[in-house]
Automatic annotation (TrEMBL):
This is Pyridoxine/pyridoxamine 5'-phosphate oxidase. It comes from Nocardiopsis eucommiae. Residues 37-155 form the Pyridoxamine 5'-phosphate oxidase N-terminal domain. SUPFAM superfamilies: FMN-binding split barrel. Pfam families: PNP_phzG_C (PF10590), PNPOx_N (PF01243). GO terms for biological process: pyridoxine biosynthetic process. Its cofactor is FMN. The gene is pdxH.
Length: 216
């Protein structure tokens, strides 16, 4: 195979180092600052995050999902509760996410526990989704499970499309909703020259947060 050797791929990081004095006292305040800068940089889908959970078998599993909101209480994302990740999170609520903003030499890791959002918040968000995305939630009821082919998925989509008129509200499926990842640990990573990266970790201790620098 005539491909680039991965071991020879190197990205030099150039820029000012990250100092303790640069950080906000609270992790979600610091996340707010960095997320805003990631968005303003033109980074494609800065709200994309790699979510890791633990299967009932003990096997870890990761996938990319989209963060759809955040505040001091944590990060929110939505999915099919009966999907593989939904079942894993319900069985073991421990999870972590990584925002891979490598184009701006940054990444953020958030680890903690998840909790389901209430029906009111789920309904409110579902109503804001484009009609096609709402229909997609209905058509993918069997998310993560085998299907015969793409034709089957298209058939389901068009069947649900015919159920509601174009001006008729589409209700949220009962099996679809959101989770909040409540942080217990948040790490901010910034790439540095000669692989001397800057890493700061916020750790919750009782009701307070402690900040510590980590070796790269």
């Amino acid at each position: 195979m005539d491909h680039q050797n991965p071991a020879e791929l190197r990205k030099p990081y150039v820029g000012e180092p990250l100092r303790r004095r640069d950080l906000a006292d609270l992790p979600m305040a610091q996340f707010h600052l960095w997320f805003g800068e990631a968005h303003e940089s033109g980074l494609a889908e800065p709200n994309a995050m790699v979510l890791s959970s633990v299967e009932p078998s003990g096997m870890p599993r990761s996938r990319t999902v989209l963060m759809k909101g955040y505040d001091a209480s944590g990060l929110r994302f939505f999915t099919n509760y009966t999907s593989r990740k939904g079942q894993a999170l319900d069985a073991d609520p421990r999870a972590s996410v990584v925002f891979p903003w490598h184009a701006i030499r940054r990444q953020v890791l958030v680890a903690g526990r998840v909790e389901r959002l209430g029906d009111e918040e789920n309904d409110r968000y579902f109503a804001t989704r484009p009609r096609g995305s709402q229909l997609g939630a209905w058509a993918s009821e069997r998310q993560s499970r085998p299907v015969a082919d793409r034709t089957e998925l298209d058939r389901l989509f068009h069947e649900f499309d015919s159920v509601w008129g174009t001006d008729e509200p589409i209700p949220r499926p009962t099996y679809w909703g959101g989770y909040r990842l409540v942080p217990g640990e948040v790490e901010f990573w910034q790439g540095g020259e000669d692989r001397m990266h800057d890493r700061f970790r916020y750790v919750r201790v009782d009701e307070a947060w402690e900040i510590e620098r980590l070796a790269p």
